Amino acid sequence: MSISVVRVDDRVIHGQTMTRWTKARPVDGILVVGDNIAHDKLRRKVLKAAANELKVGIYTVAEAGEKIAKGIESKKKFFLISDSPQTFAKLVDLGVDFGKVLNVGPMNTRPGTKVLGRTVALDQNDYDAFEDIARHGVEIQFQLLPDDEPKSWTTMKKKYDEMK
Amino acid sequence: MLIKIDIDLKIAIPYNYIVKIICNYKMEMKLVKVLLTSHGNLAEGILSGFEFIAGKSSKILTLELDNDGIDKYRSRLNALLDQQKGPVLILADLKGGTPYNESYKYYLEHPEKVSLISGLNLPMLLELIPQLTSQTTLEEATEIVLKAGTEGIIKAEDIQDDNDDLF
Which residues of B23-62 are buried (b: 16+ CB within 10 A; e: fewer)? Predict the structure, then answer.
């Protein structure tokens, strides 16, 4: 298994990724998945520049299955990152295997979200996506930094359900 | 240095507990702390930026030169540094400024205890703090900061975006 982190992070690659996660887990390159990102010329460049010396590949959901499989077979280690859980839900629906753990980092407040923590805000589409991912047997860990105590989807789901 | 432990014989303190106290004390002796020092609120500002990205850290101290003047600053600096049991890496905002100069005097008198670097910036802290352990020496910490501090300064360039094949 050569995917060392599978992560939801709305800023994809930024200071926290580069200073904390790359120190905590082995990594040779970053696979970024998301139709919105893959088609955004400017954002592609910004992400690639933010990754310093690490190589970055940016793929649509349709392209990602093959690339993730290659990443898993490879001797190199990769982070797999998308800006939304909805991307990972699409991947599990397509039968793409990216491992058994999904880490969730920053998901900041957007219109229509419920704020469940300092860096976790979900809307109904995010909620449904996490439900879908969990149903496929993937463990979801809400964890901003490698040293933080991971919170489970069960815990976050309960919070969401209790909020009006 | 002598460690004096008074044992009141009416209370039996288990031997392993005393060993633990001494071990903790020795651990604290070795831990490198980082002191950010600056004119005005720069030090607190850099710390705030660091915490925004990486969370709070007990390894960072700040000391700022304010309108109370140089003498007050000097006595606060000396008191703070004297208090520290272990080594301190001082990051000053400006070579030749008062925070640097006063730290430099302290360094000349305590070259084993403190190390001083000018040009305080955020990349230095982001690189150093997460990898600072009880094993890190003052020399190692100094090297990390020098490297990260200078490598964090670059001119932005447009990049090629034509290769997504990493395998």
Answer: eeeeeeeebbbbbbbbbeebbeebbeebeebbeeeeebbb
